[in-house]
Amino acid sequence: MILGQLRSRALAIIVVVAVAFAAIVGGTVAFLTDGFTGHDDEPPKVSLAVGGTLTRIEPARWCSLDLTECTPARMQDMVVPRVPVEVGESVVLSVPSSIAERPWNMVAEYLTPHGPTRDGGIRMSGSTYTMVLHSRPDYILTTIEIQLPSIRVDADGVPVARAIIAADTRPTADEQESDPKKP
Predict the structure, then answer these.
(1) What's the pTM?
(2) Are 80 and 166 in contact (CB under 8 A)?
């Protein structure tokens, strides 16, 4: 009789612990992915202010959280808008709370006398909404890219981007040099 009661109590404790564990894990996953389901009605837009011009850019690529559905389907089909930043100017980059409230990555590419280089890094949740990037003669801003993580990781354990929001920020002088038809 005592052995039967102990078994019943042990079974009840195991069931309670299992239910509590499932609730905690499920709640944590729901909290971390809240609003990031991959089926958002409207992908976030990033604002770039250069001089007196404000440009809002949409994702060049937007995928579901698990990367099963992407628009466009192929990376090479991404369209990146032009937002020229002249040498000597700065650009104010602002991300909405739907991006800033979670970890995100910012990569700025520059052309230097020693060749191209990248700057930026991971921004922690709630730490950065706005930043200023400068373009100087020795450090010419050519590209800005915002990456939002998916639930997948690569072979090195780095989260694979589910969204890429990018802008080609090369100065207009570069356009004239590369297109002989422009004055």
Answers:
(1) 0.72
(2) yes
